[in-house]
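User: quick one, sequence for these tokens?
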């Protein structure tokens, strides 16, 4: 059996679009390309890098093990499989890893098939081994599994094995399961495996299924299979023409995972639905398309809601330079506050502090910057303390005290309370300290009480 056409099960693939870092995603793609070329060492290095990202860790371990099995270095491959199973016991890659381990150990199970055994793990190994030993004999057994009372896990494995076959019989069985609705979960798995295999025949079947199926959930699975198979053309057509808003939005999101930014931007400019445009903005973020998000954020012809979304997505993308440039260009105070929040999302405490200390900024903007520093965590505390010391405006200082309190900066609040000569500000600092409840705060309050 070949694993080269497999990807992570669909739920994982879709989740990765939101979770994985661009560097890990690129490394993962390099690894897949290296596998296709048979460049095992290159694949190992790429998947090792990809697996540093939590969202890709289990998939990265599996593909490293696969590449090591091809060198061959069975010992290292089995170590990686063991690591995957112990670290990620609920991973969607666990079954594939077990099948790979059986192959590495030489357990092709020729002549050892026992379909009546109660041991599921042995059955899983036997299914893979029989398919390698005698495909024609294996297909009827796999079909029997699908209509039997076997567990869902075994039935899904049977579908997976069938999906690897080029046999007309295997494809016909997979097609029947994908069309049937007696077992929705098996139907979804069959549709997914058609996308994983990515053959022209499978894609044509998926297109027919999308047209014929009535379940929105099943049709959404077909869309995701188009994405897995890399069929951007069909997805784009549905993003343009699908009348169901939910399915159309799904097609748009999936185009983002395929980096189809140019096609999405063309579609965005013609679109009239705010909801669809919002989905496209999210797709730009998934694709790492900072340029088009910035274009929307700058465009005053866009609705306030869309501009706000573009700014926040730039923050989620970590586009600090773009947001800072936009802040300097913008005249609307409300939009400037949104940009500051985008900088907060991006973790750019330095520039937020720069705005907070800039006395040329309108008071409303400075207050917004101080608030964002207040919820930025302990990294922003030094900037807040520096701002308090350099600031002459009492109201600004009160805002800084509030921000320090939000950050649980007890040490800094005590330092301010001891040094402050303004009675009102001193009282405000002590009031904040009294609300903390830490030992350090209690000791300071006792110090005040004992003072003669």
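Assistant:
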């Amino acid at each position: 059996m070949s694993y080269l056409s497999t990807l992570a099960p669909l739920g994982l693939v879709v989740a990765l679009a939101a979770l994985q870092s661009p560097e890990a995603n690129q490394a993962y793609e390099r690894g897949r390309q290296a596998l296709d070329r048979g460049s095992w060492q290159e694949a190992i290095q790429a998947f090792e890098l990809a697996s540093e990202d939590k969202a890709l860790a289990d998939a990265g371990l599996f593909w490293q093990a696969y590449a090591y099995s091809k060198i061959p270095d069975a010992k290292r491959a089995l170590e990686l499989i063991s690591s995957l199973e112990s670290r990620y016991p609920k991973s969607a890659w666990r079954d594939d890893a077990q099948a790979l381990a059986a192959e590495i150990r030489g357990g092709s199970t020729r002549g050892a098939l026992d379909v009546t055994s109660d041991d599921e793990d042995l059955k899983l190994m036997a299914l893979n081994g029989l398919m390698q030993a005698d495909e024609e004999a294996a297909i009827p057994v796999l079909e029997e599994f699908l209509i039997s009372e076997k567990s869902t896990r075994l039935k899904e494995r049977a579908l997976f094995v069938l999906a690897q076959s080029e046999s007309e019989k295997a494809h016909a069985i997979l097609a029947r399961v994908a069309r049937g609705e007696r077992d929705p979960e098996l139907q979804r798995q069959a549709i997914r495996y058609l996308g994983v295999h990515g053959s022209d025949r499978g894609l044509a079947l998926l297109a027919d299924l999308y047209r014929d199926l009535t379940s929105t959930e099943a049709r959404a699975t077909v869309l995701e299979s188009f994405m897995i198979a890399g069929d951007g053309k069909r997805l784009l057509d549905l993003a343009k023409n699908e009348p169901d808003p939910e399915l159309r939005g799904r097609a748009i999101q999936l185009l983002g995972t395929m980096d189809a930014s140019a096609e999405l931007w063309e579609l965005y400019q013609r679109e009239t639905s705010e909801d669809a445009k919002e989905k496209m903005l999210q797709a730009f973020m998934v694709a790492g398309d900072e340029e088009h998000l910035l274009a929307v954020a700058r465009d005053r012809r866009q609705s306030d809601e869309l501009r706000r979304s573009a700014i926040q997505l730039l923050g989620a993308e970590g586009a600090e330079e773009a947001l800072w440039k936009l802040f300097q260009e913008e005249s609307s105070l409300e939009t400037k506050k949104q940009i500051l929040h985008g900088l907060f999302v991006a973790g750019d405490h330095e520039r937020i502090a720069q705005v907070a200390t800039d006395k040329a900024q309108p008071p409303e903007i400075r207050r917004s910057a101080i608030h964002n520093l207040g919820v930025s965590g302990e990294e922003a505390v030094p900037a807040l303390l520096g701002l308090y010391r350099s600031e002459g405006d009492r109201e600004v200082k009160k805002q800084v005290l509030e921000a320090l309190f939000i950050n649980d900066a007890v040490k800094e609040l005590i330092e301010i309370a001891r040094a402050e000569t303004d009675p009102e500000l001193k009282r405000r600092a002590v009031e904040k300290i009294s609300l903390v409840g830490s030992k350090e705060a209690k000791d300071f309050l006792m110090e005040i009480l004992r003072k003669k």
